[in-house]
Each structure stands twice: as structure tokens, then as C-alpha cells.
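TEACHING EXERCISE
Course module: macromolecular assemblies
Task: Read the component lines below, then compare them to the predicted structure of the full complex.
Student: A.B.
Group: 4
Components provided:
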Amino acid sequence: MATIEDVAKLAGLSRSTVSRVINHHPYVSEKKKQLVYAAMKQLEYYPNSSAQRLRRQKTDTIAVLVPRLTNPFFPVLIEELDLVAVEHGLQLLICQTQQNEEKELSFLNLLKTKQVDGLIFTAIENDWETIAPYKEWGPIILCNEYKSEATVPIVRLNQVKGSYLGTKHLIESGHTKIAFCGGTESELGIDRKKGFMKAMEEAGLIMSEDWFFPSSYSIDCGKDILKTLFAMKNRPTAVFTGSDEIAAGIIKEAKSLGVSIPDELAVIGFDDQPIAELMEPALTTIQQPVKDMGKKTMEVMVSMLNSDIVNDQDQIYELPIRLVKRQSV
Amino acid sequence: MATIEDVAKLAGLSRSTVSRVINHHPYVSEKKKQLVYAAMKQLEYYPNSSAQRLRRQKTDTIAVLVPRLTNPFFPVLIEELDLVAVEHGLQLLICQTQQNEEKELSFLNLLKTKQVDGLIFTAIENDWETIAPYKEWGPIILCNEYKSEATVPIVRLNQVKGSYLGTKHLIESGHTKIAFCGGTESELGIDRKKGFMKAMEEAGLIMSEDWFFPSSYSIDCGKDILKTLFAMKNRPTAVFTGSDEIAAGIIKEAKSLGVSIPDELAVIGFDDQPIAELMEPALTTIQQPVKDMGKKTMEVMVSMLNSDIVNDQDQIYELPIRLVKRQSV
DNA sequence: GTGAAAGCGCTAACAC
DNA sequence: GTGTTAGCGCTTTCAC
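Instructor-supplied answer key:
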């Protein structure tokens, strides 16, 4: 493997000059530049990235922590993050936490070992208290999920508003008995429940704890919920869900059991994934501007990377969220 | 940022000893080991990964080239690749080619610049001729998509068999007029068409070029195909597709137009993604053992990384493929 | 068991 | 414009 030294020798020049050519510095005569290019080509020379990183003290790589890639929400987000990153000469290191606290922590160490220059959370497993000290090692941003105690920039949606809109739509469609499915572990989940409660209370409705499914997220969860619901004597006529997957599972199982959607049960999803439109009936859902979140997040990251002051800003960027009406309500 | 030198000084030892402790070498006295640990802790020392990589001449990182993360086939594959990689202390660098030849080429340069130790293709944009020279820079494996000229290990399915099984099932269900949708640019696509043709010929059927949709892949493609088909006077009664997405699009559009599936049109998908089971009617499809492919691929990569002989083997690992019967046929 | 020293491949003052 | 030189932080012979 050829090194910069080999190129310098073959070109009859110094390493500095070769380095200058590689890095497109001005003040290199055209003649020598050509000499260098010729030598590089002949030797099949490519700069060693580890050496560059060591010397420059940066990696131009950003870690992106996601729970799982198989949750279709995240690939869309990553795609946009990647797009903006590439524009700025940055690379993404995708890290799947599998919702595991220790794994998340081990990825934070990428910052300490200088494997990445910055880090983006799209979901958070550990307490903020645990994460906070890592700020010292490089810029951190929260995107999508958030913690109100966090002292880093946050790019998020107004989840209270999202679920409020959905629930209100259900109420305006005449429903008074409404179930709620969605996580409440995270602050995002708690806020969604808040929005739900707000809409319920405004309408003078009360929610039944029997119709509350806190730890649901997948298609299979949705199926189970439908079964549970229809085993009850007193059951809701509508259900608010925290994801299109849950909603899809509910609808699927409803069909198997001959339950008519939305006549016997209205269902509302969250995300507006491709699946929402494909379901029969098509899913009424809360649309999240995922791409905009990705774009904004990476822009903030780039600006943090370029400013000397690391994590000086703990601004919150809140993006709009809206209801998409289809046929499941 | 503390360096190994700082730790050595504080512990009153040499850099070598600290290094030995970091790397869990034997032959370090317990006493000094504790001294080192104490110093590391006090200084919040973490080894600089770029320095280690430069010195060790390896990155323990594998590039995985995928077309797009938003195609749900790939996240499943990546998840499994990642699982096995982590077991072996390897990191994955996910690279989206966006089906772009130049992007693919630029990712191949990760090998030359020593940013990764090996590279896995899950789809291929360039000619093999273009890719072959990169073998010299590190182990390369093809997983999923393949080129028969390739001289590297290949982990794949028998795509001829897959589409043969699907088409045969259509024929056995009484269909004689069958459309074919799926890419034919790649060898994988060509093989799928081969399997289709084989089943047709065996049954003494001929395919109509009017019913051949070579460049289809998405939900929207599926919708367009259904519309095109039903604008024809002479139309097929069944359609073989190259992905569950196309099939889902066809079914969705069929419903909008009041076309009954499978009575007026039988549809068969490819992949067996979650969506296949959610569609109404549920999709009959070809199941691919995606996880097994991922596992095998990373195992082969690990063995190549550990053997001194790089890319000596150009073996083909062919995994089984099977038909899943549901309600769309 | 431990330390001294060389060097992985590169960049950036600094001098000329 | 170009070369000399001093590291970036680490691992690994080679002595002892």
C-alpha cells in the first residue's frame, strides 16, 4: 500500500507538497501538481483515513442512535439525515440500540473514543442524568424523542398537539368511548397521553383505565388489543393508537373477527407511513414531518460542529404536525 | 483529552504497560494493573480510536451497501448482519447507494482509504469488471444480488426457483393468462424472469409482451400496472410480481376500481414482508430467508477477515426459498 | 514483567 | 511556492 512518502519520492517532491495537492491547497504550481497526480495514479495511492483522522483530530462522522431499523419510521429519518450529512462531507454511523440501555451507553462511548464527532438521539433509553456528562465529548442533539431536562438542542414535534388533534377528531365524529394505545415510558408517550386527556376533558369525557394499553407498539400488539377489547362487555367505539403499526394490527384482527371498521370501531394511527394508505379501510392518522425533522437536525449538527462553542445552545425546534383524514374513522 | 502518556505519567509507569492493560495482555502484575485503572479513571481516559486504527492497520468496520433503507427488505437484512458483526467486535457502516453507480463507486473507495476492512454488496449497480479490481483492497462479498462473473463469495437465493414456484402455483390454480412485473436489469431480475418463463413453458403457455412490466418496484408502480392492465381489452387473470410492494399497490388500486382479488385478478408477491399479511386479501408470496442470508454473509466475512488469504474463495452459498399461500391467489 | 524507542501515515507550522 | 520538522496517540518489537 502506497503512502504519501512513496508518492513524494516518485514525484521528486516533499510530503508537504503532496499533502497540499491532496487537500487542494492553493499555492502549488501547476507543474508540480501534475507531477503529484501522475505519481498518485501510478502508485494507486489513496490517503489513509485513519492517519488523517488522527492528525486532524476529527472523523467527519456522526453517530445516529435509533431503536431499530425495522421500525419503518427510522429509515425515512435516516435517509434525510444522510442526505444533508453528505452535502457537508459527513458520514453517518447508524447505531441500533435495540431499546437497550447498555447498548445506548456503549454507543455514547463512540464520542469518548473519538470514533465520531457528534451524536444524534432519535430515541432515548437512559436518564438524562446519565447522558448529560457525554456532552463534554462532542455535540449531542435530540431528534424526535426528547427529555425536557435535556440541555442540548432538540428537534421535535408537538406530540401533545398530535394526539389532541386525533382524539378531537374522534370525538367530533361522535365517539365518547375511546381507548388509548401507545407507550408512556418516554416523555413523547406521556405527552401523547396528555393530548388525549386534554381532548377528552374538554369534551367532558372520562377515560376508562380498562381501555388504556400503555406498552403497545407493534402489529401484533394491535391484534391483541382488538381481541382484548372485543372480549369486554363494555367496550369503546373508537381507539387512538401511537403508531400505524398498532392501528394496522387492530384493523387486521378486526377483519378476521368480522368486526367492521369504522362502524363498530373507529381507529386512528400515528405517522402516516405507506401502510396507512394501503390498509382497508385506509388509515386516518397523524402525519409527522419526518424529513423536515431530519433536515433541521443535521443542519443544527453542522452548525454546532463548525462553532467552537460546543453545545452552547439548548434550543427547541418544534415542527408542525397534522391530521390526515381517511376512512378508518 | 487525556492520552496514554498522561495515564502512564500519573500511574508512574510506561506507555507500554498502560497499553498492555488496555489490551488485556497477560504478564502485567496485578498491582500495576490497578495503578493503571485508577489513573485511567481519574483522567477519564479513553483510547483514541483513530490512533489505534492507524497503528493496528485495521478498522474493524465493514461497509454494507444497500440501495435504500426505506425498502423494508434491507433493514431486516442489516439487523441480522449487525447482530453477527457485533458478536465478532465489528462495526457496520451502512451506505445507501440510492441506486447510483457513482455513489456505489465512491463507497468502494472506503476500502482504498482504509475506512473499512471489508465490504458487502446487497445490490449491485456497476459492472463486475468495474468492481473486480477493488478485491485487492479487502474482502468483498455479494449478498442477495449477484453477478455470475463475480469472483468473490456469494450468498444468495435461487431466484429462478422462487419465481418458478410462484408462477407454477398460479398455473395450478387454473390461470393461463399471467402478467409479469419485476426488474430485469440485474441478474436477480433476469433469473426471476427465467423461472417465470420456465413454469410457463412447462405448462405450454406463452407470455404476452403486453403483460410484461420490467421496471416496476414500488407501491405506485403496482397501482399504475393495475390501471394499465384494466385498460386492456385482452387482459391477464393473474399477475406475478417481484415484490410485496408492487403486489400491495396492485391490490390497493384494484379495490379503488372495484376489481375483485383474487376472483378477477390473482396476485402473488415476493419477500413476505409484514405488509403481505396485512393486505386484504392477505398476499400469497415467495418467502426469502433474509435473516439466514445475513447470518451466513457475516460469518463468511469474518472468516475472510481472519484468514490471510484475501478473497481466495469464490464459493456460492445458496439458501432455500419457498412459497407462502394466503388469499391473493 | 516492564520500559525505551521506533514508527503507523498524515498535516501544519515554520523557515526559506 | 516548497521543504524540513515535529508531532497526532497508539502498539509492538527488542532489550533488560
